[in-house]
């Protein structure tokens, strides 16, 4: 595995935590906490500091090993393989969710006459091809796309400032506080827990290891700001009733963008950032899952990625009949499935702590 820079690591990490800003985050928040969605986002990122710190702690253990190698080193071949399989299955479900979320967005907003399977084949093919390369190739693509996306995000939101009405964000906290915290936990689970996948990149493969923690924390703060601005911009511009009415209300807000006073109807260009973020996230997940499967050579690695891609295409077209079924799945199943990542987080952290204590005693 070739080394990558801390900036490339930051771009991949940022992609992980903001990929669900389109569709899923607002779908969960607008129905449960309404105008107080921005408060739920803030609380979710405060809660997310716990898995963030655990991730940084795990990354320091045997810096030359990736996540799956660490598990086998910590728990032995048998139990380590079980934990790795457990993590891989959850990551596969996350990849499936990323895929259907973005193809439903593309289908409903752009290609409503195109069968979903065609869109899924195109997206998965790109992700599978990229995932067969080394992590440095994925990181190069990631930093280029995330830079373009950030520029477009800043310009588009600056142009929306005049359309945001603060009255649309009121009243504050006139809701059930329990609902607020439950929604915050849900958002934290789906946005933050999957950062465990960043551990597929060994820490010693980062060129500036002394900046590893700073780059991760910086990306985390930027991700929080992006999610916060997205929610405030959407509800502040449309109001909570229109936000609830539209399936992808974030896209509807983009129609109001006017850059430099004369560039209008550029929502399709700006919305490409959602697609590219999902593409990089799905590529990383496929790459991560394939690293857990034993292989004899690079050719076997490519075949493994193709099989994973085919599974995603098949599942995305047969599990979800429509977007309503998908939204119910997010609320009733997906959040609880992703929350299972807490188990390996706790097991790995405790085992590392015990091993470190033993070394100190010796």
The amount of beta strand, in percent, is: under 5%
Number of strands: 0
CA gyration radius, whole angstroms: 20 Å
Structural class by SSE content: mainly alpha
The residue fraction in helices comes out at: over 70%
Instruction: Give the class-level CATH name.
Output: Mainly Alpha
If classified by CATH, what would the architecture be?
Answer: Up-down Bundle
| Overall outline | globular
First-to-last CA distance: 33 Å
Q: Can you tell me the CATH topology?
A: Amino acid/polyamine transporter I
Low-confidence stretches: none
Query: What is the succession of H and E elements?
Result: HHHHHHHHHHHHHHHH
Number of domains: 1
Oligomer: single chain
The largest β sheet comes out as: none
Name of the CATH superfamily: Amino acid/polyamine transporter I
Number of helices: 16
The overall average pLDDT, rounded, is 86
Describe the overall structure:
73% of the residues lie in helices and 0% in strands. The protein has 362 residues and is mainly alpha-helical. It has a single domain, classed as Amino acid/polyamine transporter I, CATH 1.20.1740.10. Helix 1 packs across helix 13. The longest helix is centred in the N-terminal third of the chain and has 43 residues. It is globular.
List the helices and strands and how they pair.
Layout lengths: L5 H13 L5 H9 L4 H11 L1 H11 L7 H43 L6 H16 L3 H26 L16 H16 L19 H27 L1 H6 L3 H6 L12 H4 L1 H20 L6 H21 L4 H17 L2 H20 L1
Helix pairs in contact: 1-7, 1-9, 1-13, 2-8, 3-8, 3-9, 4-16, 5-6, 5-13, 5-14, 5-15, 5-16, 6-13, 6-14, 7-13, 8-15, 13-14
């Amino acid at each position: 595995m070739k080394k990558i820079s801390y900036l490339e690591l930051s771009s991949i990490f940022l992609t992980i935590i903001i990929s669900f800003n389109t569709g899923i985050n607002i779908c969960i928040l607008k129905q449960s906490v309404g105008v107080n969605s921005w408060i739920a986002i803030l609380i979710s990122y405060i809660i997310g500091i716990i898995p963030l710190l655990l991730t940084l702690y795990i990354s320091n253990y045997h810096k030359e090993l990736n996540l799956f190698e660490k598990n086998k080193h910590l728990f032995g071949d048998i139990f380590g393989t079980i934990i790795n399989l457990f993590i891989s299955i959850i990551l596969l479900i996350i990849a499936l969710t990323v895929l259907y979320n973005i193809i439903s967005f593309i289908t409903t907003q752009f290609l409503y006459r195109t069968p979903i399977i065609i869109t899924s084949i195109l997206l998965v093919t790109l992700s599978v091809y990229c995932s067969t390369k080394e992590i440095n190739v994925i990181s190069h693509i990631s930093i280029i796309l995330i830079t373009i996306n950030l520029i477009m995000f800043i310009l588009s939101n600056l142009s929306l400032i005049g359309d945001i009405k603060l009255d649309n964000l009121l009243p504050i906290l006139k809701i059930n506080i329990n609902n607020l915290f439950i929604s915050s936990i849900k958002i934290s689970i789906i946005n933050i827990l999957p950062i465990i996948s960043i551990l597929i990149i060994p820490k010693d493969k980062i060129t500036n290891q002394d900046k590893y923690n700073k780059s991760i924390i910086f990306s985390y703060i930027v991700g929080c700001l992006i999610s916060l601005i997205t929610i405030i911009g959407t509800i502040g511009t449309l109001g909570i009733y229109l936000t609830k009415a539209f399936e992808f209300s974030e896209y509807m807000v983009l129609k109001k963008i006017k850059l430099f006073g004369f560039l209008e109807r550029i929502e399709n260009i700006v919305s490409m950032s959602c697609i590219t973020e999902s593409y990089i996230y799905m590529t990383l997940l496929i790459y991560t899952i394939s690293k857990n499967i034993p292989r004899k050579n690079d050719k076997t690695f490519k075949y493994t990625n193709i099989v994973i891609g085919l599974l995603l295409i098949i599942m995305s077209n047969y599990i979800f009949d429509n977007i309503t079924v998908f939204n119910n799945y997010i609320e009733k199943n997906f959040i609880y499935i992703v929350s299972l990542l807490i188990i390996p987080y706790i097991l790995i952290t405790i085992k590392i702590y015990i091993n470190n204590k033993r070394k100190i005693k010796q």
